[in-house]
Queue: 2 jobs
Job 1
Amino acid sequence: MSIFRIDTKGKIQSVHELLAGSLTFPCAGNHTCGKCKVKISGNVLPPEAGELKFLTQEEQKKGIRLACFAKVCGEAVVESIEEKHSIAAYRDEIEPKIPGSGAVCAVDIGTTTVVVALYSAETGRLLAQQMEPNVQKAYGADVISRIESCKQYGVEALSDAIRAQIEKMYQKALAEAGIGSVSKMVVTGNTTMLHIFEGLSPESIGVYPFDTVSLFGTVSSFHQAYLPRCVGAYVGADVMCSVTASGMLDRDENSILADMGTNGEMALYRDGKLTCCSTAAGPAFEGAELSCGSAAIDGAVTSACVRDGKLELSIIGGGEAKSICGSGVISLISLFKDLEIIDETGRFTEIPCEHVGHLENDCFRLKGTSVHITQQDIRQIQLAKSAICAGILTLSQETDTPLEDIRRLYIAGGFGAHINIDEAVNIGLIPEAFRDRCVVLGNAALGGAAEIALGYEEPGQIYSEFSLSASPTFMDYYVDCMMF
């Protein structure tokens, strides 16, 4: 937790303007995500309707505000609220398309995390949710390693593990909601995750020509759950569910949706059609394969800045810094770039920054903590951010849709929900053209699954997929995007 005392000398100024370098604004202050919650006391103007829709009655009573909306006009105290970052429910309430009785269940099998959420079939209100790391992480961090594990151990081992985990989480959610069953369950995930869930061999997904056993749109034997349709081997049902949740198909404009998880899947909407692709970002954005990386747990650094000559870290739980989660790595690397701790190639420099930390043997240690970032960590992030940015640029070029003609970039996924857009642009994860056009969705795959369970339609067969691996355009962008 951080406390900021400010005085505007009677001038009306926004908290976003005053503390943009100290607080996290996932959607860059565009009033779309509702994540920048703070507690403000003093000379603060009352909230308007646009802000109130993001706050519960209980939060309003406690003086909770959104920093992107709030304005002060004199002396005030702003207290950050550190929340456990989690890939949780997309929204607390989704208006049912076809109201029913009882409850429905949405399940998102992420490569890294699994979420189960129950919604009222009548009101669309969130009744309960459970989130856990995917038990299949024991078999590898990404889909390729999971596919290899299926060859080694048999798909049944991984299938039994994920089904047992979801069953346990489902029962916990039922108990939390105080109900005995649901009327409908929808299970989403990428193509490999759904193959494993259904006990289908994903081996052909891992080798050219990347065939699938099924593209789903089928009913499972597991609680008669519906499995939404996938586009192809590396563009799964999770992306189509995210497209559903974004509402992008209902807007007459060019747009891109990018899921910045372990598998960088994206879709461009133009002239009533979706063009999809995927790029291997890897698990670095979710804390894996980094020396001090972690999921968003207590003790994880989520953002960093220098204020009054001192390093300030936002830490989940407000205690001692013990690790760095994905958003924290992006924030620190952005800071390193600005302070020239790293050069444009990502190499550590010899420029001293005692107020931030010190460099020893290709390892930069943050001042006052045991947390560090290595040169290899920087390289892992370079590979990941380059893959995402090059994928977006290639998708734009392959569809002959200039970046300036793309009105919105929808960012899906748990990692994407917590990054600071300005920092992401600064390190080259997001193209500069989208700095003010980003819409942060959070776990839209789960949200789309819940919407389908509540009567919403999936995208029709308006999509096509192309391979980035065979694109010389992508390789050129990939190399160029390595630079900071």
Note: The chain has twelve helices and 23 strands.
Job 2
Amino acid sequence: MDIILFILITAFCFGAIVGSFLNVVILRLPSEGESVVFPASHCTSCMADLHWYENIPVLSFLLLRGQCSHCKSKISFQYPVVELTMAILSAALVQRFGLTPTTAGYFLFCAALLVIIWIDVRHQIIPDVISLPGIIIGLLFSVICPVLYWKDSLLGILAGGGILYAIAWFYFLWRKIDGMGGGDIKLLAMIGAFLGWQALPFVILASSLSGTVVGLFAMIKQKKGGQTRIPFGPFLSIAALAYLFFQEKIFLLYEIYLNAAIPG
């Protein structure tokens, strides 16, 4: 087998295993007092402990046909989706950055974003225990990362947190209600720490556009008008992942747009 293919397959499998643990974090972290380590994995319906062969990422879900082998209750599609997503992200990082400290740092970043996406969708919260340490880790990571300058990381933290804080403040002055949670502000600061301030225009624009489209559909479906609330963290996170893997193409689109907008 080609060594590169072997490395990518290994990275894929490792990502799937980590994704299995992330499912535990997503399930237990929002619950106060619960440990992400103990007790061992179990069915959330009948509480029966799972055997090792029921914990194989993705495969166990397929072999069990999406049902608990003990009580036959349905297993959420979240489990294979998170495992498969983390597996793909892991292989993509190795493909892009190789077996380097850069890959390790961005692996943690992707794992954090994946957990944030699912927790925010389910509970509309972004845990400080992820975003606040993430800001510090992102800044420290920039010191050893060859594709991220530490000054860009620091500016990303200040600008990321500051921009959303200013938007939230002006929205509150205008509508007298909170339009954005503090978790979104800390999340964008973490994104700025890992990607640098250069990522923020794209992340804010892409997340705002996608969030607006989804928000309009939610308003129609829920029939709550301006009272409709949707979590913004997933849109920020997905935009950050898009920038991480496609920033060259994004900057190319910037250049094409500017050349078209400013005739030479």
Note: Residues 125-264 form one domain.
